[in-house]
Design a protein that fits this description.
Radius of gyration of chain B: 32 Å
Strand content of chain B: 5-15%
Number of strands of chain B: 16
Helix content of chain B: 25-40%
Strand order of the largest sheet of chain B: 8-7-10-5-13-14
Largest interface: A-B, 102 and 125 residues
CATH topology of the largest domain in chain B: Jelly Rolls
Number of helices of chain A: 12
CATH architecture of the largest domain in chain B: Sandwich
Distance between the termini of chain B: 51 Å
CATH architecture of chain A: 3-Layer(aba) Sandwich
Strand content of chain A: 5-15%
Oligomer: heterodimer
Structural class of chain A: alpha/beta
C-alpha cells in the first residue's frame, strides 16, 4: 500500500487533475428519458404510520371486548366493499373505495427497518429515498422533480408542501427531510402551513394596498435604473437577484395566484372537502393542479403521538382520521378526473410505515425502549388498547391514481395472519419513486456529481420502476 | 472512423459502475486495475522494461485516456466498438478502423478528434472537447514515441496528489518593490499570464468589503466619512474587534464543524454542541494547530465535532460515528474526501476502504469491523493514518492516546497540508474563489502553488495565527483590486480559472440579516447560544428573585395576575453613560421600561432576554426601571432583572438589579411606567432569593459590554436565514448557494417577517428624520455608505418602509464588490 502511495507521489508531475466541483454537476444524457405520461404529482402523506389492516387491507374483524387476546386482533373495523370486485376496505373509507376503479392499490409496500422503527428517520427515507444519515444532504423527491422538470406554470412554485407546520415535535428532523439538499435551495419547498391562509403566501403583504405594492415595485425599478451598474453588469448573482425579484412580482400580481385562495371555491365544493386542515389541503392541491403546479405534498401533518401516530386508542383515533381523509381524497380523484386532469396527474397516498397490534422488533436492551414502544397487555383490558399501535415495516398500503397508473388494479398481497406481512410482489420506496419518475419522463439514469460522488434519484439508481403499475408498462 | 461518446462524459476522471453486477466485485476489479498496473510500471520486470521516462509517459497518456475517454470506450461501454482501457483493444481500434497509429500522431484519428474545434460534430469528448492542450500534447508525445503500453496494463487512473511536506518558495525575482508577500507572488503570476495589475477600489468599497470579511457587519457611515485612508490601520481596528470577529467567523466554523444550536440528532443526546468552546477559540484567536488538537482530542467542550451525529436506530456502516469523524477530519482539516472510501474504495482518489476505516479506528476502542457497501468484509481495521510519512499510530493504545497521536500527526510541522487547507479557506473567504478549488479537495492544482505554499508556510511558522494571515491577505494589493464579475457560476470551479482579483460575492444569510437588524430594526431578541462570560455573569449575579408582597410571601401560593415593579438610581455626578444593557426574566412574562421607554420583554422564564438600553439613558442623570410581570396562573411567581450602565472612561458598570429597594403594586396606576411617576405609595417588593430555587438556572442571565445587536450567528436558524442559504448543519457544508432564488424573492416581497420589520423601521426613521430628504440621505449613508446622487433625491417622497425595502434589495447592497 505504502509503495503505491510513494510511487504516486513521485508521479505527481505526471498526474492529472481530478477536478471535483463543490456544486452539483449534471452527469447524464438527456436522450435517455422515458416518454412522460404525467406532468404533475400530488403526494398525500399519511404522517405517523398508517396501519394497513385498519385501512386499505382489512383482515378478520374482531370487535372489542374486555379480555380478548391482543395477538388475535388483526383489524378493529369491519370490511366494506369497494368499486373493485372482491376488494374490501376498512369501514370508514367507502368514499375512496368508490373511486378505486380509477386507480391502483399496492398492498405490498415494504420499507427498511433501520434498527429502530422511528418516524423521523423513516419519513426522511420515504421522502428522499435515502436512509439517514447521509454524508451529502439528500433532496426531497419534490426537489428532484423541481430540478428536472422546473415549474409547469412559471408563476406556480414547482415544489409545494401543504399542511406541515415546522415549529412543533421533531421539527428539526422534519426540516431535514424537506430540503432540496445538495441540489440547492432554489429547488426547495414552497411551504403552505395553513391551507386557509395559502393566499397570504402569494399576495402582497397584509395591509399593503395594491397601489402601494405597485408603487414600491416602480420605486425599485427606478432605483435600479439610476444605479447604473445594473445595465453594465454581467454577474450571475446580480442576474439571479433581478430575475427572481421580477418573478416574485409576477407571481404576486398574477391572476393565477387566485388558485391559492380557497375563498374563491364554491361553497358546496368547499364543504365537500372541508374535513379540516387535511381536507382543505386536498382542495388547495386540486386548485393548484388546475393552475399548473408541478409537485404538491399534502400532509395529514406529523406531530408525535397525534393523528396517525397511534400508540394508544388506535381504533377511536382512526375513526377520526378516516373522517378526515375519506371524502376529500375521493373528491380530489373525482374532480381531477372530471376535469380531464387525472390522466396527467399522479396521486400517491403513502405513509412511512404500518402498524401492528403487537409489540414487534422491540429493542434488545429494555433501556432503549422508547416512549413510542409501549408494550400492550396480552389481553386487552381497556378500550385504549384496542387498535394498531406498534410500528411495523413488513407491509403497507399505497394508493396511486392517474398519470399513467393502471385503473382498477391491485398489486401484491399480504398474509391473512399476524403480522400480515407482504407475501407477494414487494414494492420498495425506491420502486415507487422510480415508477413516479418514469411516468414523469425522468430517466433512472438521472444523477449529479457532488463532492466527487454520483448521486442518483434513488440510491445508485438501482431500484427499477414497476411496469405492472403503469398502464403502458 | 466513428467515436461516439456519451454526452458529458469527458473531463470526468472516473468511471462509475452502477449496473447489477454486484458492487463489491466491480470495485475490487477497478482497484486491481489501478493498483497493479502502476506498481507494475515501476517495479515489475518486463520482457523489455520501459525506460523510466517512457514508463512515466505511458502512465501519463493512459491517465489522459482514463480521465477523458474510457467512460464510453471502456469496460462497460464500447461506443463505436472502441475500447481504450486495454492495450490490444486500443491498438486495434473501433468499427471504423484504428484510432492510434503508433509512431504517427498526425495519422492517428484519436488525436485528430480530440483537437477539433469545439463546435465540430466529430469533436471528442462530446461537449467537453477539445482536450486541454497539455493533455493533447501528452497523447501526441506518447503516440510519437510508439504508444508504449506495457502488456496486461489498463488505462490506469492516476489521481492527482499534492505534496504534503511544507515548502517555502523564495520570493519571485523583480518584486522587491512590493511590500506585501502576497503581492509578490501575485505579481509573478500576473507577469506569467501577461496581466497588467488592475486598479484598486476606493476607500468606501474597501471598508465595506474588509468589514464584512472580518466582522460580518457593514461599517458605520461615520467611519467611512471620516476615514483617513490608512487601510492597514483600518484592518487592524477590525481585527481588534474580537467579539464581532468571533460572531462572524462562528458561522464559518459552524458550517465546517456542523455545529448548530438545533438540528437532527439532539434527541437522546446523539449530538453535542461546541459553541462555547468555539466562541472562546475565536475570540481569543486560538492558534489553529491547538484548535485542531483540541477538537481531535475532544477536550471538554469540544467533543461534538468528533462525536458526530448519532441518529437513533441502526445506520449504514459508512455512517458510523467513527467514520463520520474520519470523514470530517479528512474534509475539514486535510482537504481530502474520504466519504467515498467510507463505503468502498474511492473512485475519485486513491483512498481505500481500509484507509478510512483505519482513521476511524482511532476513535474506537478496538479495531473496527470493515464493511464494503454495508456488507461486512470480515476484516478488521486497526488505527492508522493514511500518510505514513507523517508518523504512525499505536493501534493497540487506549482511545485517548490514539486521539492524541493523531492530533500530533495532524499538527506536526511536516504536515504542510493542514496549513495549506486553512490558508486556502481564508483566501476563499476573502476572495470568493480559492487558490485551490473546491476548498475541500486540496489535491487539485492551485492557480499559484507558490502563493499557497508560501502563505501556508508563513502561517505555520508564525504560530498558526489566523488573524495574522488574514491581515496579510487583507492588506495586500491583490485583495484591494476591483471585484471581478462572473458570468457563469460554473466558471469559478474550472481549473482554467484565471485570478484577476476578488470575485463579486453575495451577502451571506447572516451578513444580510445582521445588516437588516442594524439598518431597519432588530430582527432577533433571543440568542440560542450565549457566549459564556464570567465577568458578564458577575455583573448580573447580584439580581434576586422578587415579587409583590402578597400571600404571606408563600412562593407557591401567589395569585394569578399582573404586578408592577419600580426602582431608580442616580448616576454619579458628571458621568456620561456610553452603554446600557438590560437582562431579565420573569415567571411567567415581563415587559420592562427604562426611563419611560420600553426596552425588553420576555416570555420564557428559563431563558433570559437581554437588550440594549443605551438610547433610553442617553443624556439622562439616572435610570428609572419599571416592569410589568404577569403570573398567568396561581402559584410560583418571580421577577429577576438587572441593568448595567457603562460610563465614558470606565470599565466597571453601575448595576441596578432586583432585590431590596424595589417597590411593587398590584394595580397599575396611569403612567405606571413613566419616568416621573410618584411611586412612594407602592410597597416594598419581597425578596425571594438569589438564582436557584424554585427556578433553578436561567439561561443567558448575563450582562456584558457586547453590542446590543443580537447577531444572526447566535440565533436558531429561522425561515428567513434558511431561505437565504444558512444550511441545516447535518452535513459539513463549505459552500453556500450564491444564486438568488424565487423563494428568497418571495420572502422579501411578501413575507410577514420582513414587511412587519420594515414598517416598524420606516416609522422609526421618520421619527428620527422628519425631513424626507434628510431621511433619504441617512438611509443611503447607513445602507450604501454614500450620499444619494442628485437624481436619487426624487426617491425621498416614497414611503420610508418602501424606500428601505428597495435599497436593501439593490445589487449595490446585496453584493460585495
Amino acid at each position: 500500500m505504502n509503495t503505491r502511495r510513494v510511487f504516486l507521489q513521485q508521479l505527481s508531475a505526471a498526474s492529472l487533475a481530478a477536478m471535483t466541483t463543490a456544486a452539483p454537476r449534471r452527469m447524464f444524457a438527456a436522450s435517455e428519458k422515458p416518454k412522460a405520461t404525467a406532468d404533475t404529482v400530488i403526494l398525500l402523506w399519511m404522517a405517523g404510520g398508517m396501519a394497513h389492516t385498519e385501512t386499505f387491507d382489512p383482515k378478520r374483524y374482531t370487535p372489542f371486548a374486555v379480555d380478548i387476546e391482543t395477538s388475535s386482533v388483526l383489524s378493529t373495523f369491519e370490511s366494506k366493499p369497494t368499486a373493485l370486485d372482491g376488494i374490501h376496505f376498512s369501514d370508514g373509507l367507502q368514499e375512496i373505495g368508490s373511486v378505486m376503479d380509477r386507480g391502483t392499490l399496492i398492498r405490498s409496500h415494504v420499507v427498511a427497518d433501520m434498527g429502530r422503527i422511528l418516524h423521523s428517520r423513516h419519513q426522511y427515507h420515504w421522502h428522499t429515498c435515502y436512509e439517514p444519515p447521509q454524508s451529502v444532504a439528500a433532496p426531497h423527491l419534490g426537489a428532484w422533480i423541481a430540478k428536472e422538470l422546473g415549474p409547469k406554470n412559471p408563476v406556480i412554485p414547482p415544489f409545494i408542501v401543504i399542511g406541515q407546520r415546522f415549529d412543533r415535535g421533531e421539527k428539526e428532523e422534519l426540516k431535514a427531510a424537506h430540503t432540496a439538499g445538495f441540489l440547492g435551495s432554489e429547488y426547495g419547498p414552497f411551504i403552505v402551513e395553513e391551507p386557509t391562509a395559502a393566499l397570504d403566501t402569494v399576495r402582497p403583504p397584509a395591509g399593503m394596498t395594491p397601489e402601494r405594492f405597485e408603487a414600491r415595485q416602480a420605486l425599485y425599478r427606478e432605483m435600479l435604473k439610476k444605479s447604473g451598474v445594473v445595465s453594465k453588469s454581467i454577474d450571475y448573482q446580480q442576474e439571479s437577484l433581478l430575475r427572481s425579484m421580477e418573478q416574485a412580482y409576477a407571481l404576486l400580481r398574477s391572476p393565477q395566484a387566485a388558485a391559492f385562495d380557497l375563498a374563491k371555491e364554491k361553497k358546496e365544493s368547499y364543504d365537500a372537502y372541508n374535513t379540516g386542515r387535511f381536507g382543505l389541503g386536498c382542495l388547495l392541491a386540486r386548485r393548484l393542479t388546475e393552475a399548473g403546479a408541478r409537485f404538491i405534498e399534502v400532509t395529514s401533518e406529523y406531530i408525535p403521538f397525534e393523528y396517525w401516530d397511534t400508540h394508544k386508542n388506535g381504533h377511536d383515533t382512526l375513526v377520526k382520521m378516516k373522517e378526515q381523509i375519506d371524502r376529500p381524497i375521493a373528491q380530489l380523484v373525482r374532480d381531477l378526473d372530471e376535469r380531464g386532469l387525472l390522466d396527467r396527474t399522479m396521486i400517491i397516498l403513502a405513509s412511512e410505515f404500518s402498524r401492528d397490534a403487537m409489540l414487534e422488533g422491540a429493542a434488545e436492551n429494555p433501556a432503549e425502549q422508547g416512549q413510542d414502544q409501549k408494550k400492550l397487555p396480552d389481553r386487552m383490558k381497556e378500550k385504549q388498547h384496542y387498535g394498531m399501535h406498534r410500528h411495523f415495516t413488513g407491509a403497507g398500503s399505497v394508493l396511486m391514481f392517474g398519470g399513467g397508473v393502471k385503473r382498477g388494479y391491485v398489486h401484491g398481497k399480504t398474509a391473512d395472519e399476524r403480522p400480515c406481512k407482504a407475501i407477494e410482489k414487494p414494492v420498495t420506496i425506491g420502486n415507487i419513486h422510480q415508477t413516479m419518475y418514469h411516468a414523469l419522463g425522468i430517466s433512472a439514469e438521472t444523477h449529479y456529481e457532488i463532492e466527487g460522488r454520483p448521486f442518483y434519484t434513488t440510491p445508485d439508481g438501482k431500484s427499477p420502476h414497476v411496469p405492472e403499475l403503469l398502464a403502458r408498462g | 472512423m466513428n467515436l461516439p461518446c456519451l454526452a458529458n462524459a469527458a473531463e470526468y476522471p472516473l468511471q462509475f459502475r452502477r449496473d447489477a453486477g454486484g458492487k463489491g466485485v466491480k470495485f475490487f476489479a477497478r482497484n486491481m486495475r489501478i493498483l497493479f498496473p502502476l506498481l507494475a510500471v515501476a517495479t515489475l520486470a518486463q520482457a523489455e522494461p520501459l525506460s523510466p521516462e517512457l514508463a512515466l509517459l505511458s502512465a501519463e497518456a493512459r491517465g489522459v485516456l482514463a480521465h477523458n475517454c474510457t467512460k464510453c470506450h471502456g469496460q462497460h461501454k464500447q461506443k463505436g466498438g472502441l475500447r481504450l482501457d486495454l492495450r490490444d483493444a486500443a491498438m486495434k481500434g473501433g468499427e471504423s478502423g484504428a484510432a492510434i497509429k503508433a509512431g504517427k500522431p498526425d495519422e492517428s484519428e484519436l488525436l485528430r478528434r480530440v483537437m477539433l474545434p469545439k463546435d465540430d460534430d466529430e469533436i471528442m469528448p462530446p461537449e467537453k472537447g477539445p482536450l486541454d492542450p497539455k493533455d493533447a500534447a501528452t497523447l501526441r508525445k506518447w503516440i510519437a514515441a510508439g504508444a508504449p503500453w506495457p502488456e496486461g496494463e489498463t488505462a490506469g487512473i492516476v489521481f492527482q496528489r499534492a505534496p504534503i511536506a511544507p515548502r517555502t518558495p523564495p520570493f519571485p525575482a523583480g518584486t522587491e518593490n512590493l511590500e506585501n508577500p502576497v503581492d509578490k507572488f501575485v505579481d509573478a503570476y500576473f507577469r506569467e499570464k501577461q496581466i497588467a495589475w488592475p486598479a484598486i477600489v476606493d476607500d468606501r468599497t474597501f471598508l465595506r468589503r474588509a468589514s464584512l470579511d472580518v466582522i460580518g457587519l457593514l461599517p458605520d457611515w461615520r467611519e467611512v466619512a471620516a476615514f483617513d485612508g490608512n487601510r492597514a490601520k483600518a484592518v487592524d481596528a477590525l481585527l481588534a474587534r474580537k467579539q464581532d470577529y468571533a460572531a462572524h467567523w462562528l458561522t464559518f466554523w459552524n458550517d465546517a464543524l456542523r455545529n448548530d444550536y438545533s438540528g437532527v440528532g439532539y434527541i437522546d443526546g446523539g449530538r453535542s454542541q461546541i459553541s462555547q468552546w468555539l466562541h472562546r477559540a475565536l475570540s481569543t484567536d486560538m492558534p489553529y494547530d491547538q484548535f485542531v488538537r483540541e477538537l481531535v482530542t475532544q477536550v471538554p467542550g469540544a467533543e461534538g465535532f468528533i462525536k458526530g451525529i448519532k441518529w437513533r436506530g441502526d445506520v449504514s456502516a459508512g455512517q458510523r460515528v467513527e467514520l463520520q469523524a474520519a470523514e470530517g477530519i479528512g474534509q475539514v482539516f486535510l482537504g481530502v474526501n474520504v466519504k467515498c472510501a467510507s463505503c468502498h474504495d474511492s473512485f475519485i482518489s486513491d483512498y481505500t476502504l481500509k484507509d478510512s476505516h483505519a482513521l476511524a479506528a482511532v476513535f474506537s476502542d478496538k479495531p473496527l469491523d470493515m464493511f464494503r457497501c454495508d456488507k461486512p468484509t470480515g476484516e478488521k481495521a486497526a488505527a492508522a493514518f493514511f500518510w505514513p510519512e507523517l508518523g504512525s499510530i499505536k493501534a493497540d493504545a487506549p482511545k485517548a492516546e490514539k486521539r492524541a497521536q493523531l492530533a500530533a500527526i495532524l499538527t506536526k510541522k511536516e504536515n504542510g497540508r493542514l496549513a495549506r487547507v486553512m490558508v486556502n479557506r481564508l483566501w476563499t473567504a476573502c476572495f470568493g474563489r480559492g487558490l485551490c478549488e473546491p476548498v475541500d479537495a486540496l489535491d487539485n492544482p492551485p492557480w499559484s502553488r507558490d502563493l499557497l505554499d508560501w502563505l501556508a508556510a508563513d502561517f505555520a511558522a508564525n504560530g498558526y495565527r489566523v488573524t495574522r494571515t488574514l491581515k496579510l491577505i487583507l492588506t495586500s494589493r491583490a485583495y484591494q483590486l476591483h471585484a471581478v464579475e462572473i458570468e457563469n457560476a460554473d466558471d469559478l470551479a474550472k481549473s482554467s480559472f484565471v485570478f484577476r482579483g476578488p470575485v463579486v460575492r453575495r451577502l451571506s444569510a447572516e451578513q444580510f440579516t445582521d445588516a437588516l437588524s442594524r439598518i431597519a430594526a432588530p430582527l432577533y431578541r433571543k440568542r440560542a447560544f450565549i457566549p459564556g462570560d464570567k465577568g458578564g455573569a458577575a455583573f448580573a449575579a447580584g439580581a434576586q428573585w422578587i415579587w409583590h408582597d402578597e400571600a404571606d410571601g408563600n412562593i407557591n401560593a401567589f395569585p394569578q395576575g399582573k404586578r408592577y415593579f419600580r426602582a431608580a438610581v442616580e448616576f454619579p455626578k458628571g458621568r456620561k453613560p456610553r452603554l446600557a444593557r438590560v437582562v431579565g426574566t420573569a415567571d411567567n412574562t415581563l415587559v420592562c421600561f427604562v426611563n419611560g421607554r420600553q426596552v425588553l420583554d420576555n416570555k420564557d422564564w428559563d431563558k433570559a432576554s437581554d437588550a440594549d438600553a443605551t438610547e433610553a439613558v442617553a443624556g439622562a442623570t439616572g435610570i428609572t426601571v419599571a416592569v410589568e410581570a404577569d403570573n398567568i396562573a396561581p402559584g410560583a411567581a418571580g421577577l429577576r432583572l438587572a441593568i448595567a450602565v457603562w460610563f465614558e472612561g470606565t470599565k466597571t458598570p453601575l448595576v441596578l438589579a432586583t432585590g431590596p429597594g424595589w417597590r411593587s403594586i398590584d394595580k397599575a396606576p396611569r403612567g405606571w411606567e413613566a419616568l416621573d411617576l410618584d411611586d412612594s405609595q407602592w410597597t416594598p417588593a419581597i425578596t425571594l432569593g438569589p438564582e436557584g430555587l424554585p427556578w433553578g438556572g436561567v439561561n443567558g442571565f448575563t450582562l456584558n459590554e457586547q453590542s446590543g445587536l443580537v447577531r444572526a450567528a447566535f440565533v436558531d436558524n429561522d425561515p428567513l436565514q434558511a431561505v437565504m442559504g444558512r444550511p441545516i448543519r447535518d452535513q459539513i457544508n463549505m459552500s453556500r448557494p450564491t444564486q438568488a432564488t424565487l423563494l428568497q424573492a418571495l420572502t422579501f416581497t411578501n413575507g410577514k417577517t420582513v414587511s412587519t420589520l420594515l414598517d416598524k423601521a420606516g416609522a422609526q426613521w421618520t421619527t428620527r428624520f422628519p425631513d424626507a430628504k434628510a431621511r433619504l440621505t441617512a438611509i443611503y449613508q447607513a445602507a450604501l455608505l454614500r450620499e444619494p446622487r442628485e437624481d436619487e433625491f426624487a426617491f425621498a417622497a416614497a414611503a420610508p418602509a418602501d424606500l428601505l425595502w428597495s435599497v436593501l434589495l439593490l445589487p449595490e447592497f446585496q453584493l460585495i464588490r
